[in-house]
Amino acid sequence: MTNEEIFRYIDHTLLKAVSSWTEIETLCTEAITFRTASVCVPPSYVKPIHNVFREKINICTVIGFPLGYNTGAVKLREAELALAEGAGELDMVINIGNVKNGAFDKVESEIAALKKVAGNKILKVIVETCYLTQEEKIRMCKVVTNAGADFIKTSTGFGTAGALIEDVLLFKENIGSGVKIKAAGGVKTREDLEKFITAGCERIGTSSAVALLTGGKAGGY
Questions:
Q1: What is the pTM of this model?
Q2: Options 91, 150, 167, 192, the catalytic residue
Q3: Least CB-packed of 78, 104, 163, 207 within 10 Å?
């Protein structure tokens, strides 16, 4: 694959708590230069980015990040504000406690409610695979599909492990035809990027793509 082709799959990401505006501005400039799918940034930076870059950039932000245990009402309000301030895509974290309690109906309802708020904007659902059993991963494929989300996403990048090819392949076997796959966390080489795309990912969340594809130093998620 060419660099240009790979960049189309990238959510150019910076979600560290210590991220400065200077770093965020650099991220956005790189995203525009290399035409990445989006920038994925903390909610507090959505409005400043939109004010500066306007329609030059597709802004993705995170909801209930990184632990997912915010109440549904908080996630809904966070999503509403993010969209109003210029976000074009939302990456939400599920309530993993509800999964562990077997309350999949609650998880599905929360996702569906957020998709209703998102409307025609893209909603990606982070299931945090490192904390789930094989059976729970399969069940979440069905939940995400039934709730009408656009993507199932492997990881926050802040858990005990990131994306694994075997999880992407498992998703591919169990999601509905309208659901796409995003891998995130631990994608650190060009080989990784091509491997995940070949496996079926439509998006990859990483802070390292520009460095990896232009000969710089790879960063952290």
A1: 0.96
A2: 91
A3: 104
